Amino acid sequence: MAVKIYAMTCGWLTSDVSMMLAGKSGKISFPVPAYLIDHPRGKVLFDTGLHPQCQHDARGRIGFLADLFSVQFRPGEDIKSRLESLDVDASKIEFLINSHLHFDHTGGNELVPNAKIIIQKKEWEAGKTPEFIKANGYAQADYDHGHLIQQVNGEHDLFGDGRIVTIPTFGHTPGHQSLKVRLDSGDVILTADACYLKETLTNLHLPHLVHNRTEMMNSLLLLRKLQKAGARLIYGHDPEFWSQVPQAPKEMS
Ligand SMILES: [Zn+2]
Hints:
253 residues; 12 strands; alpha/beta; seven-stranded mixed sheet; 28% strand; five-stranded mixed sheet; 10 helices; binds zinc ion; Metallo-beta-lactamase, Chain A
C-alpha cells in the first residue's frame, strides 16, 4: 500500500511582503497549509493551521500578531472540518508532526486531542521558555493541551521505513523541522517555514523576522541540495505555487 499526501488549506493570511522577503514592499495573501499523510501504519498530520477562534475573533486569539497578519478563515476550513471532508475523524489521528510552534501551524492542535506530537526537542524546549516564547511570538494556548510529546533530535524516521522522515531545518525558529515524504513517484519535502516561497530559495532571500539567520541560510542550502538530488519541494506559504498543488480530497501525486 502506497503512502499518500493530502494538502489542505486551513485559512489565509495577509501581511506586508517584507514579512516574507525582507525589504520588499507591498502586501501578500498566502495560504495556511496542513497535510494529511496516509501511511499503512497510520494517519499522520503535518501541522494543523489556525485555531477556529480566528474565524470570528482573530485578535482575541493571536493578540498583537493581528496587527501584522489579517486573517481570512471561514467555518469549514479548520483542520477538523478538512479531515471530516476526507472521512477522517480528527480524534482518531495518532501522529501529529509540528514543524514549529507558531500560531498558523499549531492553532488546530487542540482539535486533534489524541495524537502524539512529534517535534524537535529544541523547539519544544523553546516553547516552554518565557524568553523564547516572547522572542518567537508563541502562544502556549496553541500547544499546551496535554498531548503526549515525542521530542526528537534531528532526523527522525517515523515508521522506520524511510517513508516519513523529519528534517531539521532550524533558523526560522530554534527547532523548526521540515518533513520528507517518500511517495512512489519520489521524495516530496514539505518545507513549512524553512522556505516560505519559491523565490526565497531561488534568491536565498530571507524574511524580515528570523530567529537565527545563519541557521536559516544553512537550512535553505540543505533544501537546495535535496531539490538538486531530485526531491520535490512544497513551499511553506507560496500562494502562486499553492494554486498548482491539488487540494484534498484529491491526493498529491
Ligand atoms: Zn507559517
